[in-house]
Amino acid sequence: MAEPRLVYADNAATTRVDPRVLEKMLPFFSVDYGNASTLYKLGQRSHAALEEARKNVAAVIGAKPGEIFFTGSGTEADNMALRGMMHSKQAKGRKHLITTTFEHPAVLQTARALEKEGFRVTYVPVDRTGTVDLQALEDAICEDTVLVSVMAANNEIGTIQPIAEIGRICRSKGVYFHTDAVQAYGHMPLNVDEMNIDMLSLSAHKICGPKGVGAIYIRSGLMLDPVITGGGQEKNRRSGTENVPGIVGLGEAARIKLEGMEQENERLRKMQRRLIDGVLSSVPECALTGHPENRLPGSCSFTFTAVEGESLVLLLDMKGICASTGSACSTGSLDPSHVLMAIGLSHETSHGSLRLSLGEFNTEEDVDYILQELPGVVARLRAMSPVWKG
Ligand SMILES: *Cc1c(COP(=O)(O)O)cnc(C)c1O
């Protein structure tokens, strides 16, 4: 019997490690296992590998290697940016943070935690396409504002934010600008100087690198309180023995992304166009969520009337298609996605959401297969639905 088909279309959740990345990592488990902080040659080889990775990670965003600090995840990088910056300015009486309503939980929940500590947070709205309201953002900046944090591209609906404009507003008002670029890094051009970005979060496993390693860019000279204290690694900004194999993997993944970004994005855009157009034309009562053009090249997200997103994901899984939904989430709660709520969808509509995110290892055949299977799966669910009137 032939292998059952597997079409992985959930690259916004995580990605498969590129074989070149894996190969580069392997010696650092077995041969070059030295602690990067030690003086002998074995440790110095680990140290050199970290510095090479730092250079490659920095190059993707036009930063200097010395402005890159490795972390244990994108989530940790977001925590460092928000907690580290807000805590460091607390003594001066500045207690205001601005973010948006549709950030990743790594930012949103950190903002909520800061509110509990007594910080003031403004959540700026986004429009129907998932684009932040620039006027509302500018109006929210006041005397005691320390930091603005807006994600570069959204993980659920793929919308890309006007990062350069936000950077310009923040710079002109004298407040710091952090962007959660975990989805955007390596998938679209970013330049920290041209875009006036002061801090930027990224993660290896969204760019065909390993899980459990990330990094933060911090503009040189910017002081933050450390979130993790200890042995003083990463210039005292993030203590803990460095995850050398993971960091080597992140560096190699970044190098590969930078080298092939333009070509890969062109390939993804073609598949994205075909998948979006194909779904919209073959499934009745279906809508695209997010911005029609201004979106990440692999991101395709929809809502289907009278369909339960979780059922859709489970039936697609039976066909060998990995996708995700923002309807009821992994926590088992029945709350629909805060992102879909933030762009103004009703509870009912957002329960029928589906995200298909394409990546490096997807092919045109994958798109064919999804287009072949999805309309039937939706029709099957609707046939069982008490609310479907089609
Ligand atoms: C995945 C993701 C994160 C979290 O990164 P981890 O490395 O998984 O902790 C944060 N923000 C966005 C936008 C993401 O997509």
What series of H and E elements makes up the topology?
EHHHEHEHEHEHEEEHEEHEHHEH
Which structural class is indicated by helix and strand composition?
alpha/beta
Distance between the termini: 38 Å
Number of strands: 12
Count of runs of 4 or more consecutive helical residues: 12
Main beta-sheet annotation:
7 strands, mixed
Bound molecules: pyridoxal-5'-phosphate
What name goes with the CATH superfamily of the largest domain? Type I PLP-dependent aspartate aminotransferase-like (Major domain)
Task: Give the fraction of residues assigned to helices.
Answer: 40-55%
CATH class type of the largest domain: Alpha Beta
- Gross CATH architecture of the largest domain: 3-Layer(aba) Sandwich
What proportion of the residues form beta strands (DSSP E)? Answer: 5-15%
Low-confidence stretches: none
What is the CATH topology of the largest domain? Answer: Aspartate Aminotransferase, domain 2
Rg, please? Answer: 22 Å
Number of domains: 2
Average pLDDT over all residues: 96
